[in-house]
Each structure stands twice: as C-alpha cells, then as structure tokens.
Amino acid sequence: MAPNPRKRKVVTRESPVDRVAEDEEELADGLLEGILSHSEDESEDSQAEDGDSESIEGLSDEEDLEDSEAEVDEELQSDEIPSDGEEDIRQQMRNLKTTDDPLRRKTAKLSHEQDFEADGELESRPEEENLRRNYTVTTDANGNPRYIYKEIEPVYDSDESDAPEATNTIGNIPLSYYEAYPHIGYDINGKKIMRPAKGEALDALLDSIDIPKGWTGLTDPATGKPLELTEEELDVLKKVTRNEIPEEGYDPYPEMVHYFSGKLEIMPLSAAPEPKRRFVPSKHEAKRVMKIVKAIREGRIQPYKAPAEEEEDEEEERQVYDIWADEVPRPEHNMHIAAPKLPPPGYDQSYHPPPEYLPDKDEKAAWEEADEEDREREYLPRDHEALRKVPGYERFVKEKFERCLDLYLAPRVRRNKLNIDPESLLPKLPDPDELKPFPTTCAAIFRGQEGRVRSVSIDPRGIFVASGGDDGYVRIWEILTGRQVWNVKVSDDDNVDTVRWRPGKDSAILAAAAGENIYLIVPFAILSPDVEQASRDLLDAGWGYAASKPSTTANGAAPKEPAARWSRPEKRLEDKGVLVQTTVRSTVKVINWHRKGEYFATVSPRGQSSAVAIHTLSKHLTQLPFRRLRGLAQSAQFHPSKAIFFVATRNSIRSYDLAKQELVKILQPGAKWISSFDVHPGGDNLIVGTYDKRLLWHDLDLSTTPYKTLRYHQEAIRAVAFHHGGLPLFADASDDGSLQIFHGKVVGDLMENATIVPLKVLRGHQVRSRLGVMDVDWHPREPWCVSAGADGTCRLWN
Amino acid sequence: MAKMKKKGTTGAAKNYITRTRAVKRLQISLPDFRRLCIFKGIYPREPRNKKKVSKGSTAATTFYYTKDIQYLLHEPLLNKFREHKAVAKKIGRALGRGEVGDAARLEKTHMPKIKLDHIIKERYPTFIDALRDLDDALSMLFLFASLPSTEHVPSKTIALCQRLCLEFEHYVIASHSLRRSFLSIKGIYYQATIQGQDILWLVPYRFVQRTGGDIDFRIMGTFVEFYTTLVGFVNFRLYTSIGLVYPPKFNAKSDELGGELDAFQLEGRGVGSDDGQATNGDTAKAVISAEAQAEVDKVAALAEPERQEEVSTALTRTEEDENTDAIDTFEPTAKDADVLPQPQASSAEMASLFAPFTFYLSRETPRAPLEFILKAFGCKRVGWDSTLGDGAFTSDESDPTITHQIIDRPALPSTSQPDPAESSEPYATTNGDGTALKAQWPRSTMPGRTYVQPQWVWDCINQAKLLRPDLYAPGAELPPHLSPWVKPKKGEYDPNVPLEQQEIEGEAEAFEEEEGVDDDEEEAEVEDASDTEMIESNGTNGVAAIEDRDNPVEAGEGMDVAGSASESESESEDEEAGVGGDDWEGFESDAESDVSEGEAARRQHQRELEAEATGKALEPTIKTTRDRNAEVRKKAEKKRKQEEEERERQKMMLSRRKRKLLKRIEYGEDKRDKEAENLRKKRRRIEKAKTAANAT
C-alpha cells in the first residue's frame, strides 16, 4: 500500500480490521443507499490519514492498533451524529449509491468533515478547506470529549435518482491498480471515486443489522462494490445446493413419446411369424444350470470354501502311496538316453590302497601342478593306516554338484563303444615264409665302372648282366661271379643311357643306346658259336631292306628325313660285335623289346613328334607311330601278350591298340612325373614309379586310377620292374639308395584283387649327388635282381 | 517337377531347438526352465550335424530335442510356476508396502504347492526304472542328510532327507539286500541289490562338508526336491513289498538322543514276521541292562498279540515259501550232458554272516556305517558306547555276551599291556556281583572276545566270509583294502595276483637289470651316504631299502654286467641304425642278430682254441644271474620286435579308415598297458625293498 516497508507492515496488521470495517461499510452501503456512501468515502480518507499520521508519529504497532481502535470508536460515535455534507459531496454520494433505503438512512450517517474532526486536527487536507465544523465538542460522562453534530437535513427534492448511475470511468482495467490510492477511479466528471469505507466501525452496526437478502460479502471486481445477488440468482443457488435442476420449469422426466410404436401401424414392419423360442424355455440356459448343478453335486464347485487349515503337518504334506500300482512298461524310445551311472570306485580310491597305487613324488608333483581340468582324476590316492585317520573329502559337495550339472546340462550322446578286437581289423597276410623266395642279401657287386651306371639288364638265359653307364662303355658281366667278361666303348662323349637284351634264349642280342645312336650288339667273344650265328642272322636279315630303302626315298620328290638311319658302325666297333647302328633324331633314353624280339621301341623324351619310335629288327625299319604326342614321353612298353602298346607321358599312361591304330585307355596315376612303368606278365596290371616318391599299382580292369598307392621311399623312384619268370615279385629302385621288394600276386579270378605285400628293403648302394639306384632288373627265372647304382657299382641281390 | 523343398524345414533343423528358443516358446524364465528340466529329466542333445541344425554356424549352443520341449508345453507344473510367479509378485508388493502380515498370509494360503507325483510316474513308468535311477538320488539325499542347515538348505529338507535315508537303510537291513561296501577316500560306498537292480550309493564321512566356491544350492535343492519325492515313493513300495507298514513309526525323542536307525520302529502288516522284533525276543534272555530289558519287553508286548493271531497262517505261508522260493539245484544225470549255470543261493548265508555274534563298537569307530552294515548282514545285537548315541543293544563294554569288539586305536606299548591274570580278574568279578566293570581296552582285554579294526567288517562282507581277525587286530598293519567292484581284465594290473603271473615276458629281467645298473651307480655314489638317502634315491617309501653294499663280489659282477649291457645296447643301437628310419622294417635285423649270435659262437670257439693252444684249462664262463637276465630280456625283446614288425607290415595294408580305427583302439590299449606296467614296476620295487629289509 505504501512504499515504506515498515508502514506496510503496520497496514497489514491493521488489515483485518480494515476489512471488517469495509465490510461494514459495504453492508451499510447496501442498506443505507446513497446517504451513507459519502461517509464511506470519508472513512476511506481517514484511513489514509491514519497511515500518514502513523508514519509521522513513529509509534509502535501496539499503539497504532490502539490508535486506530480509538479512531474507530470515535468514528462510530461520530456516526451517530448526522452531518450535513456539502452539496457536491452529497451529489457524489448520491452518484455512488445504487439503491436507496430511506429507512436506514438515519442510523448510519457519516460525513467526512466529521471524520476529519474526529481524527484530529493535526492534519490538513485539500478537502478540509471545503469543510466546515458542523459539530460542537462537549465532555461526556467519562470526561472524554464528545462531539455533538448537527442534524443532517435530507434533501429530497433533488432529481438525481433519474440521473444515470455514477460509473467508474477507468475502463476495463483491474481495480488492483488503484490499491495504493484512496480512490478507485474517476467518475464521469473527473472526480475521484473514493474507495468505499471499510473498517471496524461498522462491526457494531453489523450486529444490529439483519443480513439482507442477496448479500454475499463479496466485492464485485468490476465495480469494486459489494456483490449482491438478486432474488432469481439466489433462487438458482438454492436449487443447485439442493441438487435440483436450476432451470425453471424443466421436467427431467417427461412423458415418453413413442416415436415408432406410439402410432399404431396398419401393416406390421416384418411379416415373419413370431419365433418359437419366444415361447419355449431356453435350452442353453438349462444346460448351463445343469452344469453348475452337476459341479456342485460332484463337489467341484463348493458354495462355500472352507478356510485353509492352519498348520498342515509335515507328514500330511508328504503323501505317499503306491504310485506303481498299475505300472505299464514304456517301450524303449530311441531318442531317450538314460543318464549314465557313475563308475564304481577302483583300487586307487581306497582309504588304504595297495602301496603300488600310491603316487610317487613325480606323479604327485605333476598332479599338483596340472590344472584342475587337466587332471586325469580329481583325487590323489592316499594311504591312511587306520579308518580313524581318514579325513573328510573336501570336494564332496562340489562333485555332487557337478554331477547335478552333468545330469541336466550335459548333452547326452549315445556312443558306440569300440569293442572290436584289433586283431580282427588287421588283414590276414601270407606268412613271410610262404612269400619266399625273394632277394634278401647282396650276393655280388660288379665293380669297375667309372661314373654312374645308368642301366642294367640280365640276358634271357640268365648268365650275363649287361650294364651301361656314364663312361660310355657297355659292359657284360658274369652274373654269379661278378666278373667282367666283355666290354666295348660305344661312345666317347655320350652316356650309355640304356641297355636291353633281346628276349629269346636262342640268340643273344643286346640293344644299347648312347645319345642318338642305338647299337645292336652281339658279344660273340663270350657266346657259343651257334648262338652267335643265330644272332648274326637275325641282325643281318634286315640289311636287304635297308639297302632298298634309301633308293625309294631317293626317288621321292621331297626327300623326307628318315625316322632313323640304319647303318653299320665303324670297324672298331664291328670287330667287337657291334653289328648295327641306328641313329634317330634325338637322344634315346629307353629301349624296350617286344616279347617276340622282332620289334623294339625307343623313347627319346626330347624328340617331340619322333619321341616314340618302333623299330622292326628284321626289316631294319623305323616307324614313328605318333604324329604328335601329348605331353613329354617318358617310357613305352609292349603288352606282353596282345598287340597293345603303352606310352607313358609325364602324368598319364595311354594304351594303344597297334592293330586297330587307336587309343584304348588313358590311365591317370595321379602322379606329377612318371619315371618308369612296367607291365605285369599277365598284362592286366601295371606298376608305375614316379619322381614324386610314389609307387602305384594299376589294375587295368578295375579303374583308370591306381588300385594302391605305396609311399615307402624318401626319394624319387627311378625304375620299377616285375619279375617276368613266374614269381609274384616286383621291385623298385629309388634315389634314397634302396630297393624295395614287394610281393604282388595277381590271381586269375577277376573278383579277387591283387595282393601286395611289402617284403624287403635292400640297402647297399651309396647315394651320390642325390642319385641312388638308377635301374633294376630281374633274373628271368631266379628270385634275383640286379640293380645299377649311381655309385658306379651294380649289385646282385639274392 | 516336384516342389522344391525349403532348407531348414525338415530333419535335424526341426528336430532340435536352442535353449533360448525353448525358453521363449515355453514363456517362462530361465530359472523356471531349469527347474522344469530338472524335474522332467530333460537334457540337452548333441545333434549329429551341428551345422544343419544351427543354419551353418558352429558356435557353441545348447540344443534340446524339440519334442521334449513340445511335451513340456503341456506340463501342469508350468501353470504352477505361473501361479507362483503371480503370488510372488503380490508378496513382493505387500512387503514393499511393509505389510508383513499380508505377505505371510499370501505365502501361506496362496502359494501353490508343487507336487511331483505325476512326474515320478511319468519318468519312471515301472518300479524297476525308478530303482535303476536310484544311485544319484540316494547319494544326494545322504549328502544332504549330513549337511548343516543354511538359508539355502532349510532344516526341514535336511530332516526329511535324514528320515528317508534311514528308512531306506531299514529296508536294506530288513531285506538283507546289501551286497558290498567300500571305504574310499571320498566316503563309504554301498551296493545293494534290490529286485535285481544294483544300486550303488556313496555316503560321506561325518565331517563338516566344505560348501564354499561356486556351488549353486538352488540347483541342488531342486534335485533334492525331486529325489525326496522319488525316494518317498520308492520306500513306500519297498516297505509294502516286504510286508511292512510305511511310514514306520518315528520316535522323535529317540531321534533327538541320536538314535538314528533306532528312532524308527518297523511294523509288520498282518504277519508279525518283523525281523527286528523277533530278534529282540530272542535276545531278551541275554540282556542284562535294565533299559534294554524294558525296551524289549515293551516291544515284545506289542508284537505278541499280533503274532498269536497270525501264527498259524504265518507257519503255513513260510512253509509254502520254502517250497517255492528257492531254486532247486539241477544235477546232470549223465556225464556227457551240458551243465547250465545257476545262480548261487548264497544270499541267505550272506544275510546271516554276523548273525551269531554280538558286536560292541568303541567310541572312536564310526557308528552309523558299522551299525548299518552289521545289521544288514544279520547281526542283531550291536552295542556301542553311550557317547555314540541312543539305541544300542548294550552300552556296557564289559557285557559278557559281546563276542566282537571293534576298535580303532593304536596299540599301547607292550609294557602297558596288562598280564592275563589281571585281565581275567575283572571278568571273574562280573559274574560275582554284576557291578560296573572296568574291563576296558586297552588296559585289559576280555577273554573270549575278538578285537578287530573296522576294516575287518568291510573285508568280510566283500569276500562273503569271515576273515582271520588276527590280521585286523588293533594296531596291526592292515592288509590293503580293495574295491570289490574291480573285475580283473586282461592286460590290467591286478593286485591280488602275484607279480610273476601277470608280467610280460622279460619284463622282470629288464627291471632287474635296470635296477642293477642303477644300484651300481648309486653304490658308487652313495657308498657312505646314510640309509635315508638310499631310500630316496630308490624312490620307494616306507620300508628301508638296504642294498647289498657289503658284498663287493656282487658289486664287481655288477660292473661286468653293466659293461656287457652297454655292449648289447650298442649292438641294438647298431641294429636300429641299420633299420632305423624305415616305414617298415624288413627282416634284416633278425638276420643281423643271427650274425651276431654266430659271432658269439665263433668267439667262444676261438677262445677254446686259444686255451687249447696255451694248454690252460678253459675257465667255464660263469653265467651270472644278470647274464641270464640279459639273455632272457634280449630274447623277449627280440620276440616282441618281431611281433611288432609283423604287425607293422599288416598295418600297412589296411585302408586309411581302418588304420585310424586301429590306432584309436591301440591308443586305449597302450594306455592301459602302460598303466599296468607302471604299477607292476612300483610293486616290484616295493617287494624288493621288502625282501631286502627282511634279509637284514
């Protein structure tokens, strides 16, 4: 209200009083129409004055209170006295008044002049000038001053009642803006409309006055005047409080108006006859009822549930009966796996085991060191000499817990226990004694060559061994003694790559290849005369053809280079027995004879189209069977009985029918580089040696892939050979310096596979610059074989 | 064209389901699922092809059989779990509000009670099935019966376990179905044969169990809940099968006093053929102690009227039983007929193994197992020290009826042993006035009484005969206690059989040689060392191994032999070098060894020639034992080598698959052989040490 905080405080303290006063004022206003209104304004003023005076006096709160009370008293007293206000004030009062109640007019009359007098003379006000003293001061019975006011003359002749009500012109702004001022706005004339009086002065008055109808005790915020309710409004309120409908004449329950059925139609809306169910009792309901009845009878529904018994006894809780009274065994289900039982304890779990079960120091340390999961058993055997000394087992609960976990967490798998006698798995092999004879020891060593021995061959009668090596010599040895019986140096700069005896016992012809030359030799010095003659005849038979041949070619327009030139070697060689020299286009590495001795095949791997050549001995004729060969030719062989020719390239073996001139079969040994192969005397099986350390057995009837792959060598296999004299043996020679002898039995029965049994490793050759055994050949009858080594020796094994 | 089949819609992909999916399908929590699995006995599976099941991923996953899970969907327990969850929620809410009374009421009245009866019936459709699965149940219950009560293990559960265990033991006693028992370091194993099923269970020694670590008692509790139900039904069936009333009468007071087995009183149904009662009646005359007498009288009075009623029927029935029960022995009339094997009817003998005796258990012996075993094998009168609990036949150690006393105390030095005169004296007084006697071991022994250690009882029942008690006398060194379940198998070590019978050829000699070399070396080193060091170096325990170090001659020989041994070694090395590195060994080696033998003969001959030339008499080469040993060993080695070679040769011809199979089989065999060899070696060493100790 006032800027001074202290003052404000004072005012707040006073406020209840003020309010009451105000209320009274309002009340008075309500009752006393315009006459009192003036005095209200006055009182308002006086209040403001009070505040001022206090601020000047600086009195304590108590005093203020007292003061104000005193003032009110005075006011009240002064109220008694009607004061005659001035014209304008009266006018104002009249303006403010909304209602007029002449009855009460006399009782409450105030004039602001009086107020001012009562308040005291200390203050002078702007209104004061306008005011005159309209009272006289006397002393009452108590000795207090008493003001006696003059009689107020009511002016009835004025026609102000017709005038429009004095309205506050402040417009639509909250009245709270005027809270700090004594006035609440301005009237039409620009005069202040003073705040209606309030204060305790009216309290007493209030007591004596009946509360008028419509009085609410509230202030209309729009006007600042007390809010009064009209008769109608009160009526509405009363109805609301009584839960009645406020609207007059509203009937909550009006008569029903039948919109559809009220009017009787002549024609029905639906022509359907009335259904039967309208006339018969519901079956469904009956059913439901019966259900409930049944349930009640059976005791499923209990109309009243007995309260649960207090403490059920342990015994009663655990009800046991013969659950297996009517047991029916369940058929075994395949997917059901019963939990495995724990194994019974062994000797080492005993509290007093035999002493050998106790762990020694190392075992104990190992056990303790091992991680708990790695231990083979979870306990360490211990020995206690008496039962009383046995301690508790620490892991007992843990083990049981783990068992529980196993029971419900571990996946169960049915495993077939291996209950096979290992002996039954092993194949029945022939006894080593039954496999005999086979070569086991080195019987003779043929020494005397320089450099590697590249090739070795035993003559068909089984007397001589021919060998050829890096020194360019072809040598012939006696097989039993190892004595060198004959030799010839066929070439100075080329190695003798291969030597092969011609099959057939009646003659003794040796074919040897050195470089591009193939020499056919009859070592007559060591032969009996008839054999020598037979051999010479065989070789000489072709000369006629050889003579005719050049002439035919000479006649031809384009003299094609012949596949080979057959000629007589130089004199030196011819004297020694080298009778024929055939020169082919490139270095010959392999010679193989046809079984009849009429043909022989040579292979010169670098020869490209002329790699494989077939030579006819009796005609001195050379043919090149393949115009173009796929892959690098490695070896070639005739079939032992049929007109089939095998050619091995680097990683496959092809067989050709010579009669029909067509490819029969391609074998795929799966090797990287075939070194050599040999055909079984039966003709249906093949062994292949490879540089990638494998020895492969092919069954031609079975498949194009190997029947067996044997890998027993550490180094490349150089040569393989079957025994051609009827013994089921074959051998291979390897760069690791060893020969391996196998038993390879082929039975005539097609249903039975070949039996291959490893027999013997023959060691003896030294490995020189990573080359070991270069060639191997079998004796035609005996279980002997001869090997050629890179160490410059040949060895006979028997 | 047929409709293309989508991948993963049939076969293994449908047959198996991961755990997560199973839980989702059942709409329960994982712990509930776990419980359900435990109750229903559902376990994960290992699909044959994991990739097919888990759509190509090979991550470690648990798979369940889909049909198992589908089956679970209809499980009534599932609803119980849900109800339980709902109530638990309510209780939680009530507790959260601080309404403890409400919570208690909810728990008491609304908590659903889980009954497992139907599951028992479902999992074990026949009684035999239940018996087959009783191993784990019994072991678990016996363990829980000995656990202290904690928050996870309520005392109610423990009490129930104890009761069930004792009831089962009572059945075993009454039916004499206990067969074997074994004292192991883990506990005591028992095996009973009930209706043809062998049931093996393990009872821990009575110590406080260590329960720390990662043991989840909730899981074990779930198992126990199931097992208690199972064993309850099994007990009922067992009791009724031998005509007893189940549950037996339980005497809480006796139980409190530590009566254990005695807290139960078996009642016959109909026929008063209760064993316990009958025996008590028999022994009544012999009983001296007033308490026991009174008890017996009481029991007899109880039993009497029943018996009189039924006596006639009982008689006829037993006679019939005799006629029908036993298997008749079939004797072949002609000699050429085949003899069919018949089961031995020794169970009756076994059942009365201890029948004629009265046992007394000293206070240091474990009463419960001894009482159980003795009673199960026919002993009716077992007394024990009163500190061991209630229910003894007699708690008076000087009772003259006692025939055997089981004692587990060290023997006192001989000086403190009382002389016979003294010991006989108190006995005399017994008869005289019957005052309290002081005949207490070891101060004095009662004449006519056998004192044995507890192991005697176990060894007796395992061997089904009464053993010599002197081997088990107090303080004596006990013979090893052997497990009765180990069957001797070929190739495995058997401690019962003498060493010579089971070792492979040449093994002993090899050992001797090796030891000999060791000894020599040791002797050189440890000539002056103390005995203890010797023992250590020998690696034996217990008995001192004293070597013949005071025998210089032998030592010298030993040196010789060592030399020869090294020679032979180098020879064998040569052989190996000759053959080594082969995939298969040929026959070279034996040829060479032949050569070496030939060489030896030649040398011998040479020596003879030289001797002849010089005119000296040829000293006969002394074949020492070691030489002989070496010879034998070499021969055996050679033979083994040959066999090995032959085998290798055979193996080469096998297909790869078979070779792998063989390898696996051989791995197991090798392991077994190695183990056996190790044990034999140890035993040999121990025996040698023992003989050496005896010699000195």
UniProtKB/TrEMBL annotation, chain A:
What is the name of the gene encoding this protein? ERB1
Signal sequence interval, chain numbering: none
- Pfam families reported in the protein's UniProt record: BOP1NT, WD40
**Which SUPFAM superfamilies does the entry link to?**
WD40 repeat-like (SSF50978)
| Limits of the BOP1 N-terminal domain | 178-439
Which InterPro entries has this protein been placed in? BOP1/Erb1 (IPR028598), BOP1_N_dom (IPR012953), WD40/YVTN_repeat-like_dom_sf (IPR015943), WD40_repeat_CS (IPR019775), WD40_repeat_dom_sf (IPR036322), WD40_rpt (IPR001680)
Tell me which family the UniProt entry assigns to this protein.
Belongs to the WD repeat BOP1/ERB1 family.
Start and end residues of each stretch annotated as Disordered: 1-134, 342-378
Q: Which residue windows does the record flag with biased composition (Acidic residues)?
A: 41-87
Query: Locations of Basic and acidic residues compositional bias?
Result: 11-20, 97-115, 122-132, 358-367
User: What name does this protein carry?
Assistant: Ribosome biogenesis protein ERB1
Assigned keywords, A-Z = Nucleus, Repeat, Ribosome biogenesis, rRNA processing, WD repeat
Give the compositionally biased regions (Basic residues). 1-10
First-listed, main subcellular location of the protein, grouped into a coarse class = nucleus
Query: What organism is the protein native to?
Result: Lophiostoma macrostomum CBS 122681
**UniProt function note:** Component of the NOP7 complex, which is required for maturation of the 25S and 5.8S ribosomal RNAs and formation of the 60S ribosome.
UniProtKB/TrEMBL annotation, chain B:
| Region (Disordered) residue spans | 303-339, 406-442, 503-696
Keyword Flavoprotein annotated: no
Q: Which GO terms describe its molecular function?
A: ribonucleoprotein complex binding; RNA binding
Q: What is the annotated signal peptide range for this record? A: none
Compositionally biased intervals (Acidic residues): 503-534, 568-597
A Pfam family per the record: Pescadillo_N
Q: Where is the composition biased (Basic and acidic residues)?
A: 599-610, 624-651, 663-679
Quaternary assembly: Component of the NOP7 complex, composed of ERB1, NOP7 and YTM1. Within the NOP7 complex ERB1 appears to interact directly with NOP7 and YTM1. The NOP7 complex also associates with the 66S pre-ribosome.
Per the entry, what this protein does is: Component of the NOP7 complex, which is required for maturation of the 25S and 5.8S ribosomal RNAs and formation of the 60S ribosome.
What is the protein name for this chain? Pescadillo homolog
Name of the coding gene: NOP7
